[in-house]
Amino acid sequence: MATKIMKSLAVFIISAISALSMSGCAGIGKTLEPPRVSLANIQVEEVKAFETVFQIQLRVFNTNDIPIEIKGIDCDLEINGRKFASGVSKVEKEIPSYGTDIIPITLYSSVLEMVRGFFNLPNKEKFQYKISGRVRLGGGPLVPSVVPFKSEGEFSLKGLNNSTS
Q1: Residue 110 contacts residue 86 (beta carbons within 8 Å)
Q2: What average pLDDT score do residues 86-94 get?
């Protein structure tokens, strides 16, 4: 009788493990929503002979019911459809559940890219931007390590004239 109970228990455990493995992580808990990222500010930091340094601030939204740990962000900035600047930032931030925080990133643009980007533009007050990249997350094995993001909008040149060259 004990062997029948052991066989039944073994069949039950194997069936349960099979069902969980077929359903993936969804069987264990909710899936993690990737953070939403948007451009909060952009400012010229330094103009050098061959490059311009920008300081941007990204607003990161955590729409999950658990905190997320951000380890780093890399991104590219396009203005009016042209590649403009790139940057990377090592970050140690925890964003609480349903919370938000600002993450600063330094972007670098070559003078050539800037001239190409602005030389043939008509006089405009507002410019279209697209920022895309990847957020690197810390956490356990159920948390993806890299999450892509993309954000679009427009900005004015009025806020860019605070250079410290």
Answers
A1: no
A2: 94
Q: Give, for 54, the enclosing helix (H) or strand (E).
A: strand 51-61
Q: Does residue 28 sit within a domain?
A: no
Residue 151 lies in a domain: yes
User: Residue 141 is which amino acid?
Assistant: P
For residue 55, give the nearest of 93, 84, 87 by alpha carbon.
87
State the pTM of this model: 0.69
- 83 inside domain: yes
User: 82-95 and 36-47: which strand pairing?
Assistant: unpaired
**Domain with 68 in it:** 45-158
Q: How many domains does the chain have?
A: 1
Range scoring the smallest mean pLDDT among 97-101, 108-112, 156-160: 156-160
Question: Environment class of residue 62 by beta-carbon count within 10 Å: exposed (0-12), middle (13-18) or buried (19+)?
Answer: buried
Instruction: Output the CA–CA distances (angstroms, integers) from residue 155 to 4, 117, 160, in the order listed.
Output: 72, 15, 10
**Within a domain: residue 23?**
no
Residue 126, amino acid: K
- CA atoms within 13 A of residue 73's CA, in its CB half-sphere: 30
- CATH number for the domain harbouring residue 75: 2.60.40.10
Q: Give every CB contact of residue 25 below 8 A, 6+ residues apart in sequence.
A: 31, 142
